[in-house]
Amino acid sequence: MDWTRYRFRSLWALPAPPPVVYDALARPGDYPRWWPQVREVTRIDDRTALVRVRAALPYELAITVREVRRDPAAGVLETAMTGDLDGSARWTLTPDGAGTLARYDQEVVVNKELLRRLAVPGRPVFRLNHRLMMRAGRRGLLAYLKAV
What we know:
The chain is of the alpha+beta class.
């Protein structure tokens, strides 16, 4: 087993319709406004940004995120990532009654040296850290969507 490889899946039930949720998720530059752990998004070009993330644990990740698929009709946003994490992330939005089910899939390999060194003993804590970050993101997006 490669202890530096992670697969995550999160499901967010949201009360807004898919086009509204899609519009919010398709603007990564706004993420720091509603997702506390996304500290900074610096645009490099129309499809690429440097994203700095810090969750509960005392380390920051710097990730270059490049959009590889933007398909509003299918409800899909997909990115490739390089830097402290290499891999991909994908939002898939589907109608859920009057709201939206937002599914987030992420598959990454950790490159940050400290996290690689602590890969085996730290794995449960890193997974918890990710869950806490995703929980805070959902809460932040809920508040953001209410204000829109």
